[in-house]
Design a protein that fits this description.
This protein is an alpha/beta fold. Helix content is 34%, strand content 25%. It is found in: Cell membrane.
């Protein structure tokens, strides 16, 4: 399959209070055309910072200090801001977490939807408007001519999210990044949004990177899953491997905390403790203070990534005796 995005050993750092701290630590992954990668983990694990690094949208005090981000074989970290602006919204688009803050309250829906079309295409004014109406129809918004003239506050949460999707898809991107696209939506609208993204992925042949903390969403839409903890990738695999054979204690904890509507007697298990601060350096495995299986080795040495199968890796010393070290993966991270 055609590889769209390749991220190797990504390290994203922030300058704050006179020191430099890393929020993303050696992250590597790839996305193929027509596939969905879900990035999961608790809030603060580095999921959104990873995607903002790919998009080149880090705040002024943030930078990619190490690593490579390649899109269609082109290195993005070396691109000038002007070149990245030409790429964003055109070849790579992003759906942000909260549409009420991502959409500008001052401008109409039509203005914000037609802007990327005016910037990235050579369509006439009439063609731009026709395309905008067609996009609103495609994302399931009724009476699109009327909606073009309305402001974001005049729309429901579900409609605003659909507008965000329409804006992201305006120029038929090859890669769509969705950061918690169904947060704060009721379950009915959530299902509709996920189905919509999946249908459009099939129609346009896009690659999709979806950030979420909802394992139910992962089970529904993912082809591959990347589990992050405290800036590290701790486990990767196909959605079947992650759900049927979770290998890292953190992944097991995430799955154990998901309620099962078919089991009235289920007791939910919480992961003890909390995430370390971004500037807190922990010797050994960063998860060991919260891990019920931690050994002395876990407290002293940071584990490598072990290969469970060709598509399944786990950064945990528990795998040392069961599988062989994936030398090629760790070479990429070094």
């Amino acid at each position: 399959m055609e590889q769209l995005l390749e991220v190797n050993n990504l390290v994203t750092s922030f300058k704050t209070a006179g020191q430099k701290v890393s929020a993303v630590r050696g992250v590597s992954f790839s996305v193929n055309r027509g596939e969905t990668l879900c990035i999961v983990g608790e809030s603060g694990c580095g999921k959104s910072i990873t995607t903002l690094s790919v998009m080149g949208l880090l705040p002024n005090n943030g930078e990619i200090s190490e690593g490579s981000v390649k899109f269609n074989g082109e290195e993005l970290t070396a691109k000038k801001k002007e070149d990245m602006r030409k790429l964003r919204g055109n070849e790579i688009s992003m759906i942000f977490q909260e549409p009420m803050t991502a959409l500008n309250p001052v401008f109409t829906v039509g203005y914000q939807l037609m802007e990327p079309l005016k910037i990235h295409t050579k369509l006439s004014k009439a063609e731009v408007k026709h395309k905008a109406i067609d996009l609103l129809n495609k994302v399931g918004i009724p009476n699109p001519e009327k909606r073009l003239k309305q402001h974001p506050h005049e729309l429901s949460g579900g409609m605003r999210q659909r507008v965000m999707i329409a804006i992201a898809l305006a120029c038929n991107p090859s890669l769509l990044i969705a950061d918690e696209p169904t947060t704060a939506l009721d379950v009915t609208i959530q299902a509709q949004i996920l189905d919509l993204i999946d249908d459009l992925k099939e129609d346009l042949g896009m690659g999709v990177v979806m950030v979420t903390h909802d394992m139910g969403v992962v089970a529904e839409v993912a082809d591959h899953v990347m589990v992050m903890y405290a800036g590290h990738v701790v486990e990767t695999g196909t959605v079947e491997e992650i759900f049927s054979n979770p290998s890292h204690p953190y992944t097991k904890g995430l799955l154990a905390s998901v309620p099962n509507v078919d089991d009235a007697n289920q007791s939910l298990e919480a992961i003890p403790g909390s995430l370390p601060n971004i500037n807190e350096e922990i010797e050994g495995c960063r998860f060991h203070p919260r891990c019920p299986f931690a050994t002395e080795k876990c407290k002293q040495e940071d584990p490598p990534h072990f290969s469970i199968s060709s598509s399944h890796q786990s950064k945990c010393w528990l795998q040392e005796e069961e599988v062989t070290k994936d030398e090629s993966y760790d070479k990429a991270l070094s």
